[in-house]
Amino acid sequence: MEIKKVVVIGSGTMGSGIAAHLCNANIPVTLLDLTTEISEKARDRIFKSKPPLLLDKSQINNIQVGNIEDNFNVVKEADWVVEAVVERIDIKHNIYEKIFKDRKEGAIVSSNTSSIPIQVLSEKLAAEEKKDFCITHFFNPVRYMGLLEIVKNENNDLAKINALKKFCEIELGKGAIICNDTPGFLGNRIGVFAMQVAMTEAFKMKLSIEEADAIFGRPMGIPKTGVFGLYDLIGLMFLKVLLKNYPKMTLFKKLLKKFL
């Protein structure tokens, strides 16, 4: 399996970051959104981003842009289609219906979701379509965060999953790990627990936010945002998504009562 062309659908923070990093790897990429204007503004944000998402800003025009209505035919030429739209299952299902109608045979389709189960995302797909569908969870900022979670389940073509992992490691320079479809996958499952423990201990020790962030930061090999700063950055929305999709997660419910 060769990946020579990629389409990214959704030009928000993650979609833009993924498109920029593909551009860094000299992989032809097209970024689509609801309107071409949105995609063009995303390309402008990529160009001006700090820290820079592009290795070479002169490559910015290598990111083609368009809109879902008028330019969706580019999906027919893509070897890999990455969905990075809002974390709403109904919207994602509608996008997948369009993708699988137009994609070329054997093309990989993946979601950048951070927490929605692959079983939920793929529930409306045919058996043959499920073989080529997975989750590729990049972390923000995409250029600088080495981890990539590739989530699969029993429906996947494992040879294709392994080929995608190899591509992401060699061409994109990622530390790719293959995960099963478990709550929070691996990164969030461990990371959320670590942050909740850090916050709980900070409250017990009566530390200020600044003190807690200073400790749970660079000294521990964690980004300088610290624990409270990181929650401000990523928000609590993804935890609400976890609860919605994993209603039996009583531990999370108890923890979230303190913060939501």
Brief account:
The protein is an alpha/beta fold. It is built from eleven helices and eight strands.
Please characterize this protein's 3D structure:
With 260 residues, the chain is of the alpha/beta class. It folds into two domains: 6-179, Rossmann fold; 187-256, no CATH class. It contains eleven helices and eight strands. An eight-stranded mixed sheet has the order 3-2-1-4-5-6-7-8, sandwiched between helices. The model has no long low-confidence stretch (mean pLDDT 89).
Please mark out the parts with pLDDT under 50 across 5 or more consecutive residues, or reply none.
none
- Tell me the span between the first and last alpha carbons: 45 Å
CATH topology of the largest domain: Rossmann fold
What's the gyration radius in Å? 19 Å
> Treating each run of at least 4 consecutive H or I residues as one helix, how many helices?
11
Order of helices and strands, N to C?
EHEHEEHEHHEEHEHHHHH
Profile the largest sheet.
Answer: 8 strands, mixed
Helicity level, as a percent range?
A: 40-55%
Residue share in β-strands: 5-15%
CATH superfamily of the largest domain: NAD(P)-binding Rossmann-like Domain
Give the overall shape: globular
Q: What strand order characterises the main sheet?
A: 3-2-1-4-5-6-7-8
Number of strands: 8
CATH architecture of the largest domain, by name, is 3-Layer(aba) Sandwich
List keywords for this structure.
2 domains; 260 residues; 11 helices; alpha/beta; single chain; 43% helix; 15% strand; globular; eight-stranded mixed sheet; Rossmann fold
